[in-house]
Amino acid sequence: MKITKGKRARAQKVVIYGTEGIGKSSLASQFPEPLFIDTEGSTDNMDVARLDKPTSWIMLNNQIAFIKANPTVCKTLVIDTIDWAESLCVDNLCAMHGKKGIEDFGYGNGYVYAKEEMGRFLNKLQDLIEIGINVVLTAHAQIRKFELPDEMGSYDKYELKLGKKTSSQTAPLVKEWADLLLFCNYKTYLISQEKSTKKKAQGNQRVMYTEHNPAWDAKNRHGLPSELPLDYNSIAHIFKTEEKEEVKKTVQTEFKDEKKEQLQFEQPKYNGDLEAPRIEKTQEEKIMDNFGDIVKEVENTPVEELVDPFIAKPDYIPQPLWDLMQQDNITEDDIKLVTESKGYFPKGTPMSVYNEQGYLTGYIIPKWEGLKQLLKQLKQQ
Questions:
Q1: Domain annotation for the chain: domains and CATH numbers
Q2: What are the tens digits of pLDDT across the range 90-110?
Q3: DSSP secondary structure string, 326-349?
């Protein structure tokens, strides 16, 4: 049993939400080496690194798994935005259970399923935190009437704009998960007008709030001031702590390696042998030296396997399914192989018929992971 004491430098979980156009994505782009998963296509005019826009919940989860398997691709993962990601989650749940909407489940079960699925998604993001990757979730804000249980009356409050029906279940999960919950807004002043009882709103200063207020949700675990300019430099010191630890480890490692090299250094000895004259290789020999394995593999591969099956998307394949097929290198023939092995359609049935029956969107996409496992088993037989 090990007991530790004191602060520990680690990656941070950040949620940035606010009104539209306030600069959430721009703020997120200033984090250390960010990689965007742009669920709504809002970063096209920004010079940032990004993965393909996820067209399904499964594709989004596969992208998280890719980053976990390749932790050097970024230091910060930005999901822009989490409310659009939640809509992918709801669509996937409805497709899996054959429902048209989240309310069709009955007895509020749909909201519980969405909460559980979002919880599993946040756990996957936690895995990235543990390997040293910061995670930033951006979200839009909405105004909702709020009533205190022990007071009469109500007031308006800014909240995370998650699903209209699912927000009460998923928004608390996201807020509890975050280390840093930042609310971004324009600071507004009310100025009294002469000869009038009305007041005029002014002010265009963009700020971010780090502490809870009756009018918004915010929190931080770093002792930040309650109000800061909407600028990454205001919070940059939080992420530099981790960088200092990395530099310290690197310096120590280099110092050890240098000492090791000094100890192992030996004066080269001359044995008097003359170096044999070098014979210049032909261009063909150079190619075979560098790419011989690839050339032999191509020579032994059937022509039909060398043709790219993903050059153009057929009209009868939905875009979310096409993205998954490209991502996992699964062809139409592979899907037909699995389908025919289960007896869902007669052998030789065109894939366009699959789509007409709703089989592709209602079964294949929700059961994609199971399809991959079954396909692997069939190909091993």
A1: 13-190+201-237 (3.40.50), 296-380 (no CATH)
A2: 998 888 888 888 888 887 788
A3: HHHT--HHHHHHHHHHHTSS-TT-
